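Box 3.1 — From sequence to structure: Dolichol-phosphate mannosyltransferase
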Amino acid sequence: MRRPAPSTVLRLAAAAWVGPHVARAALAHRPDARPTAARDDITVVVPARDEADRLEPLLVALGERYEVVVVDDGSTDGTAALARRSGATVVEAGDRPAGWAGKTWALQRGVEAANGSWIVHLDADVRPAADTPTAAVAAAEELGADLLTVATRVVAPPVARWLHASMLVTLVCRTGGPGGLSPGREMANGQVLAARRTLLAESDGWSAVADHVTEDVALARHLASVGRHVAMVDGDAEIEFASFGEVWRGWGRSIGLPGIEPRWRSVLDLVALAAVMPLPLARLVLGRGDALDIALLAARWGAALGVGRAYRPAGPAVWMSPIADPVAIGTVAASAFRRHISWRGRRWAVPRVPPGRSGTRRTS
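Predicted structure (token representation):
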């Protein structure tokens, strides 16, 4: 009996590694955060640092339907003044205690200032509908979720969509997707995040992941590890990228889940991603492909179809995203092993992850 070629063993092993995550995403019921009646128990918390050129559409969309708290994290561009003119409550982040990263401290300060029993965190560059916060809270209540995040819709030029779609497929291959998150590898999107104020204010809230720079995923995995229910749903809020470079720089900071995954698992993920995403197409183009390559490429295009709903519009760029896979995987690798992350003039150390666990340890 002939032994299978090493390349066949590699591709089969890689498919077995990512297959359960992809299957969960493909077979899961994908709930949506649907519009609901207005309610007065929600506080929207927006962390902001030098966001004067992007914050106004969010504040206009929310109007006067919610208590809105904008946490000004040392802005120098008029962010606070814009927020006050729009009717939001402005809280200064102030000096960070030791052990806190910038965004986690801003989120904590917003929670402390909030009056609502539910908190909905929105990033300043999100373009929500007026009912995005109520829809997120209603979805959390319906699903019994302690923490719920909402996948946004991406608005971007074709070349940016091309790269973003490839990056998104790498996430599906590692974590599953909305409605089908893989246990132990829970994913979250902190752009739209809903939880009860009491949860976020207590020891299992932001203080548990205070030093993290990928704080949304860190919080989701921490809560799941202590028995809380974490969920992710689809929604209608939009996020805009102006260019290929903006996707590469913006998502490139966190796409590898720095400080979350132990290095051994990041290495296995990268090998598996390379074997099931760009390798089959390359083998077919070079005339060395086989039936397994055809099957893997078909699955890759199936993944493109699955993530297509995240884009407005999807278009040919998403279908052509397999060509971007080498760039996307290289970006994942650079992100996964970085020691520091720079953002808005600040530089943060990435927490080290113990070899046997995700980086969701409690901080003191």
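Summary of the box: The mean pLDDT is 91.
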